[in-house]
Amino acid sequence: MHCASCSALITRKLKKTVGVEEANVNLASAKAHVRFDSSMVHEHDLVAAVKAAGYKAEVRNEHGHHGVELDRKRQESEIADYRRKFLIGFALSFPMLVFMVLTFLPNSSLHMMTLPYMGIVSLILATPVQIWLGSGFFRGFWSSLKMGTFSMDSLIAIGTYAAYLYSVYNLTVHVVTEGSVFGDVHDLYFEVAALLITFVLLGKWMEARAKGRTSEAIQKLMSLQAKTARVLRNGQAVDIPIEEVKVGDIVVVRPGEKIPVDGIVMKGLTSVDESMLTGESIPVEKKEGDHIFGATMNGNGSIEFRAEKVGSETALAQIIKFVEEAQGSKAPIQDFADWVSSWFVPAVIVIAIITLIGWLLVGATFTFSLLASVSVLVIACPCALGLATPTAIMVATGKGAEHGILIRGGEPLEAANKIDVIVFDKTGTLTKGKPVVTDVIVLKGVADEVLRIAASLEQGSEHPLAESIVQHAKTKGLSLSSADKFQAIPGHGVKGLLNGTQYYLGNRKLIEQEKILLGEMENRLQQLEDEGKTAMLLADKQSVLGIIAVADTVKETSKEAMEKLQSMGIDVYMITGDNRRTAEAIATKLGIQNVLAEVLPEKKASEVKKLQAQGKRVAMVGDGINDSPALAQANLGIAMGSGTDIAMEAGGIVLVRNDLRDVVMAIQLSRATVSKIMQNLFFALFYNVIGIPIAARLFMHWGIVLRPELAGLAMAFSSVSVVTNSLLLKSFHPQRRNWISDVAPWFMIIGFTAVFFLFARISS
Ligand code: ADP
Ligand code: MG
Fold this sequence. Notes:
Structural class: alpha+beta
Helix content: 40-55%
Shape: elongated
Radius of gyration: 34 Å
Distance between the termini: 34 Å
Number of helices: 26
Mean pLDDT: 87
Bound molecules: adenosine-5'-diphosphate, magnesium ion
Strand order of the largest sheet: 12-24-23-22-13-20-21
């Protein structure tokens, strides 16, 4: 594929194929994503459809290591191919370039000497360039013609063939009238055709190289993978290729070695550098029972661990898959670029014809008019437009992954740029989600009995509050019994029978539902709640037996993140099922003004909806488990991957690290990316806007004329500039302003304007 019109053409062809529900062809990654009904159409039919459109395709079943390896090979061969073609083209065109320079020195002896042979030599040199090196453009032209449209290839093919055939015609006329191929033949433009193709190939070569760099992130991730693992087999440690590690294998890792797969530590103590997955540079302590992840780096300890996830299941493989999918996805803004380019090419052909006829009508020579018209065709190729969005998205998603921010493609990236409100889940998102018991108040009965009953009830619950109570009872050495008819009531608490007695444990709502009066206990509750603690009441059928209060510490970095977001003009909200006082107390600590408290789990999504109804674009940040509906309802869902468990479907963005500063970074990155896309689109359009009138020789009066081959060179470099501009996102840094990236487009615009005029001078 050469440009946006190619990908648009293939998309159209695929969509027309019976059984295809959706097709999306990505120019930058050279991948097509197709959803189809397998009972109606086969994969090979899709490949055939692409072939019928004049392009090559293969089914890509391979993911992970193998697939990326294939991509890399394909990319490398593409680069090598363009390089070879350019070099051959250049070698063949060079003598013609010399002839061209000599025409500026008409009285030099070298010119006198070569002049009689210029025509025939040019024909011999230009023909292979036109027919062989330019065959790709012609094929593209032909296949789009069959589909009744024009593509960028059409522009190059028509432009070069016009110059080439016109020259052949003039040479033939010369031969017929003079009876010899030698002599001073007028109006030969073989070099225009040959140099144009050569320059476009140069541009393609540079572009392919630059595009290769946009997907480096995945290759970098791939290279993190260990090649071998040392596993215990019959008590012996043996080195085996990583592919042969099975779940349940005991893997031995020595100090300083790479951890091969995901697993749970069985023996040993160490610290592990997980920065390659999480972006967190501080090593993490690992002891027995802790999870460790493939591709991370072991520190000073020796450990043995049991392999739990291998192959495509590992956290690294999941991240790679995530990024790969994201890079192949399409951004909404891309539709605009596609729409423009779909109209652009036909419009350019019309402008070229008008240019030709217009100049002829005002009395210009045919040669002059033709050259102007060819320049128009060439300069207006919308390649830069097609590359503007996907390259920026590829770089941004790769950059995000480097920092432990997984962005599911262009859509969430664009959404993140436009967010007005961010709603944070309290437990586990703003706080650590590991509450600890702080107070046990006994109102009736024996001390410890309250805790014992509470913990016995909570054994059946998976709520973090329940875990903290059970944990606390265990450390006190209390023996727990199991409850009958246990029931968890979401957003309220739990109930169950112990030795035939009915108990309730939960918040006010739960107790009040049982018609138990709180009386003066309300004061105690409020006191605890004002301290930011979650107070739970334990009651039997008649009265309250005690209060258990737990506190969840806020993450050290949450406050900083909230301040940053607010300073970026974003409103932050806290949402929680906890009671209002507790929530307010914690919100105050974090500097959050907007609190949505006592929200039942299933109502979180409707709270998001309410904010949206006020015309706000809402992002929801949650731990992705019970927050899924809210994450899906929000304009942007940001899921916190607890640890490295990133196999999450809910979020448009997944944060590998459990740190809210990454929300800030994600938004900064998306803002940087969207502004980069805008710069690229603006540049691509600007370039065409000033390029076309110059090419059409409208400014001839001021001596500004652009030769077609130089128009080709300018066109080629416009694509290269756009890709390079996207690559500047690689220097994105959350704490630093990316000056180079900000000013680069201005330099591009100034540079290009200068180049146009410089070329125009050379030409005139
Ligand atoms: P969040 O996830 O925002 O912390 P939940 O909706 O899970 O809130 O819970 C809301 C409230 O319901 C808790 O603050 C607590 O008072 C009560 N609750 C929920 N589950 C339990 C439980 N297993 N034991 C005791 N109280 C509970
Ligand atoms: Mg929760």
